Amino acid sequence: MYYPGMERGVFLARPNRFIAHIELESGVQVCHVKNTGRCKELLTPGAEVWVQKAANPARKTAYDLIAVRKGERMINMDANAPNKVFAEWAQAGRFLPDLSLLLPETTHGDSRFDFYVEAPNLRGFVEVKGVTLEEDGVVRFPDAPTERGVKHLHGLKRCVGEGYEAWAVFIIQMAGVRWLEPNRKTHPEFADALRESAGSGVHLLALSCQVEPDRLTVDQPVEVRLC
User: Fold this and answer.
1) Of 13, 45, 71, 202, which is most buried, counting CB atoms within 10 Å of its CB?
2) Alpha-helical regions (H) of 92-222
3) How many CB atoms lie within 10 A of CB 5?
4) What's the pLDDT at 3?
5) Alpha helices of 34-172 — where are they, by DSSP H?
6) pLDDT under 50 in the chain at which residues?
7) Does the 6-76 domain belong in CATH 2.60.120.280?
């Protein structure tokens, strides 16, 4: 995934979930934050960030906040990126080698999943989650309670019971991590639902990414540890 028109800046403040004040060469700009998670450990005053000029010149926020440097680690925090990166990776034959159909935003029952997939003798659903929370090389999801995420896991479990394959895919928006685990401290219900769905046959897949200021690409699988 490529981001044209990137600019380097310095994070100043985040008045609310949707906007941030960023200092660029052109001066202080109000930027749209493309991630409504807490991200408190990422957006600290003085952090080096990268923003993208908005395509619509009439938009109130002229830039989108895309990436941030945390210590030596570059982290992409675009919440729209994980689905796009997964689709690129899957279409390149790295998910299912004989994938014949990848259909985004598909409703089944009372759930709307990120993807419906088909391959010879296989039909299934995929739900993708982006991961930006890291500590000492361990990444955790979610960084805030997500009832929607719990609902998706229960929906994937029902799909397995109906004869479909199902995957919960975690796109880790950084490289060089040790493993992924559910954030039981923040949302124990999600951790329980993840363990239950895995025990019912839902596949868990975590993928780290190579991150550059203007690029995000899937790198390699990462171990998932249930707790």
Assistant:
1) 202
2) 147-161, 188-199
3) 11
4) 95
5) 81-91, 147-161
6) none
7) no
Model pLDDT, residue 227: 85
Q: How is domain 81-224 classified at the CATH fold level?
A: Trna Endonuclease; Chain: A, domain 1 (3.40.1350)
User: 187 in helix, strand or coil?
Assistant: coil
The CB density around residue 82, as the number of other CB atoms within 10 Å, is 26
User: Is the CB of residue 150 less than 8 Å from the CB of residue 195?
Assistant: no
C-alpha 218/C-alpha 211 separation (Å) is 9
Residue 34: Cβ within 10 Å count: 16
CA 76 to CA 85: how far, in whole Å? 12
Residue 37: the pLDDT is: 81
* 34 secondary structure, DSSP code: S
Query: Tokens 């960023």 belong to which residue?
Result: 22
**Dist. CA 102–CA 87, nearest whole Å:** 8
What's the pTM value of the predicted model, to 2 decimals?
A: 0.95
Type of residue found at 49: V
Cβ neighbours around 74 below 10 Å, total: 21
Q: Where are the domains of the chain?
A: 6-76, 81-224
pLDDT at position 139: 98
Instruction: Locate 111 and state its tokens.
Output: 């759930």
Count other C-beta atoms under 10 Å from residue 85's C-beta: 22
pLDDT confidence of residue 40: 86
The pLDDT value given to residue 38: 80
Helix orientation angle between 188-199 and 147-161, rounded to the nearest 10 degrees: 10
